[in-house]
Amino acid sequence: MPLDRRQFAKLASTSTAGYLTRNLWAEHVLPTASPNKFCFAVVADTHIIDDFYQGHENSDLDTSSLQHTAARLASARNLINRLNPKIEQVFLGGDYFHNYPSTNYDFYFQNVTRLDHAKAITDGFKMPVHLVFGNHDYDVKNIPREMSHQLFAAKFNAQPYSAIDYKGCKFILLNNFLGSTQDHLSPQFNPAIGSLGEEQLQWFEAQLRQHRPTFVFLHFPLIQIDDTEFKDFGLLPLLRKHRETIQFVVSGHLHKWIDFAHTYGPQHYAIAATRYDENAYMLVEVDTRKVTWRFLNSSLVDWSTHYSRPYRGI
Questions:
Q1: Fewer beta carbons under 10 A from the terminal one: N or C of the chain?
Q2: Distance (Å, rounded) from C-alpha 79 to C-alpha 74?
Q3: Bridge partners of residue 283, in order along the sequence
Q4: Residues 43, 95 contacting (CB under 8 angstroms)
Q5: DSSP conformation class of 30
Q6: Which residues are bridge partners to 170 per DSSP?
Q7: What is the predicted pLDDT for the residue at 196?
Q8: 17-25+34-300 — its CATH code?
Q9: Residue 31: which pLDDT band, with cuts at 50, 70 and 90?
Q10: Strands 37-43 and 282-287: what pairing?
């Protein structure tokens, strides 16, 4: 019979549980050191706040969770830092911080804010951290997108979208807030639907034409993306066209673990939020010789929930 989280925690406090826990860890696939292999991690929806935060969220759980976001991200970071074989890259799938405390650009350089708190935590990672924009990293109704881009460039040295080439693989960080659905002056404005815009779509297609094994990250799940923004040209047609090149797509936003399988062409996962669980991370081993990958902690994930059991590594 599967253990729920409370039963698991109780068992882990006993010597008998130590034996059970070791066997549970043996159920998932451990990485192996090899010159042809490397590992990376994904986290999302970290929602860091600051002393300027005042508010109530949609539920008591949502409200209380914000008081623990810094500690939970730090816990995930500490685990990722100590894994062996080491994690070589980290990708953070959006909602880095939770909303903007001011619409004034200078405010963020005259005060210590949630942006600074988020950076201080991620600066503690021993490997590079690459940022995806989330909806809470914008305020499309009240703050120009250009201001968010300026802050990300100045504070985090991050661009609205980007690609990283690493050990023969490509990692593409898309931004689903640059199209007309995220422009409050557009007739197509709908903040619940993501879109990329023609310039980014053309850039994405050029990246895919390089035919390198590619991992794609964005914030909204594909179910919330405008699939064909320009006649037959859009994100979903590109994903299906290049499904042999794209290894998988990972999104955040839903705050729960969801396996969309091959609904949109390539394998698509939504990752849970460290906002609710410090064990909400995805650990991936890539074999560059075989051109394969393994989701190392998939057996620990409690699918369709916020939660996962902790990964112990080797």
A1: N
A2: 9
A3: 41
A4: no
A5: P
A6: 165, 214
A7: 98
A8: 3.60.21.10
A9: confident
A10: antiparallel
Convert the pLDDT of each residue in 39-63 to its tens digit. 999 999 999 999 999 989 999 999 9
Q: Which residue do the tokens 């997108």 mark?
A: 145
55-59, 62-66, 85-89, 165-169: segment of lowest average pLDDT: 55-59
What are 267-307's pLDDT values in tens digits? 999 999 999 999 999 999 999 999 999 999 999 999 999 99
Instruction: State mean pLDDT over 60-67.
Output: 96
Q: Collapsing DSSP states into helix, strand and coil, what is residue 203?
A: helix
Structure tokens at 312: 């112990």
Query: What six digits make up the tokens of 15?
Result: 């010597």
Phi, psi (degrees; rounded to nearest 5) at 105 = -55, -45
Question: Is the whole-model pTM more than 0.85?
Answer: yes
Do the beta carbons of residue 179 and residue 195 sit within 8 Å? yes
199 within 8 A of 205, measured Cβ to Cβ: no
| Cis amide linkage into residue 160, ω under 30° from 0 | no
Alpha-carbon distances of 313 from 20, 25, 32, 39, 102, rounded to whole Å: 16, 8, 10, 12, 41
**Residues 212 and 261 sit within 8 Å (Cβ to Cβ):** no
Q: Tell me the C-alpha distance between 263 and 261, whole Å.
A: 6
Output the pLDDT for position 5. 38
29, 296 in Cβ contact below 8 A?
yes
Q: What are the Cα distances from residue 67, in Å, to 5, 182, 239, 284, 306?
A: 21, 29, 37, 29, 16
Residue ranges of the domains in the chain? 17-25+34-300
Asked if 306 contacts 45 with a C-beta cutoff of 8 angstroms, the reply is no
Within 113-269, residue ranges assigned H as helices are 114-122, 145-156, 198-208, 235-241
Q: What DSSP character marks residue 66?
A: G
pLDDT of residue 55: 86
